[in-house]
Design a protein that fits this description.
With 298 residues, this protein is of the alpha/beta class. The protein has 13 helices and six strands. Strand 2, helix 2 and strand 3 form a beta-alpha-beta unit.
Length: 298
């Protein structure tokens, strides 16, 4: 029996993944699985650029606003739930589309999760205490010292990710990066990776324009409604963190908006770096025609 195929469409934030995914899913009569970990949460609409109501009607989507920011949802939960849905949907489809910019979540589905040891909770509690007393800069310096490779890859503004890496380093005496990708899951489907790429200057202009549109569409109001959840991992997200600083009087509103644009551009850089590792990926532009994409994936 012919193997089924999962087509993974990725690229930097704001580059047009949603548009390409919907065009392709429509043409192939398929469904879309989101691997954007911030679009999981129903309270986060404006700041995560979830697909429009019309897009969601046009093509069946999975893992879009299916839970609340108050719920804990790990990458392990996602891998398990995602593989279950993929297996179910392959009973009726030959091809499925996965799209998003959260590389670790996508890789958990494509290649399986890395195996980490169980960590003594006291180490995590000590790191959390350190963060509260001295701030994120102290954690960043510790990670740079203990695992410079992972330090260059990670979102350095996400204190929970840094704490996770540090607790593994401290407990095992090894680098966090040394545990990554030691094994590959045996997936029963073929994988094709499609990466959308664009000139950096054009991409950054799109990002700045998208942030302006988010502000116009009510990002400030949305962030204010979520400030009581600011310590949740789901809210360690560009667009919300900066407004929380504004609400606390640490920066002006104009400064918050400029920081959102800058931090989004930096996030895009990290995504571009992450995607370089997909050596056999098919690379297209946001303007590549649907017919050409179909030829490339066949």
């Amino acid at each position: 029996m012919k193997k089924k195929t999962l087509i993974y469409i990725t690229g930097a934030t704001g580059i047009g993944k949603t548009k390409v995914s919907i065009l392709l899913a429509n043409k192939l009569n398929s469904e879309i699985i989101s691997s954007d970990s911030r679009q999981f949460y129903k309270e986060m609409t404006v700041g995560t650029s979830v697909p429009s109501a019309n897009d969601l009607k046009t093509v069946k989507h999975h893992f879009i606003q299916h839970m609340s920011v108050v719920e804990d949802y790990s990458i392990g939960n996602y891998e398990k739930d995602c593989i279950k849905i993929i297996n179910e949907k392959f009973k009726i489809h030959d091809l499925l589309i996965m799209t998003g910019g959260s590389g670790m979540y996508a890789d958990s589905v494509l290649y399986g999760l890395d195996e980490f040891p169980n960590i003594n909770k006291k180490i995590r509690n000590n790191l959390i205490s350190l963060f509260r007393k001295k701030g994120i800069g102290c954690l960043q310096e510790k990670l740079k010292e203990k695992d410079p490779i992972y330090y260059r890859k990670i979102d350095l503004n996400n204190h929970q990710r840094i704490i996770r890496a540090l607790e593994v380093c401290i407990f095992t005496g090894k680098t966090y990066s040394s545990f990554l990708k030691k094994r590959k899951a045996n997936r029963i489907f073929n994988i094709k990776i499609l990466i959308i790429e664009e000139d950096r200057n054009k991409l950054y202009k799109k990002i700045n324009n998208r942030v302006d549109l988010m502000i116009k569409n009510g990002l400030e109001k949305e962030a204010k409604s979520l400030i009581k959840y600011r310590d949740k991992n789901s809210l360690q997200t560009v667009g919300y963190k900066e407004f929380f600083d504004f609400f606390n009087g640490n920066i002006t509103k104009d400064e918050a908006i400029l920081k959102i644009k800058k931090n989004t551009r930096n996030y895009a850089k990290r995504q571009i770096t992450w995607n370089k590792k997909y050596k056999n990926a098919i690379r297209i532009s946001p303007n590549t025609s649907l017919n050409k994409i179909l030829k490339l994936i066949n």
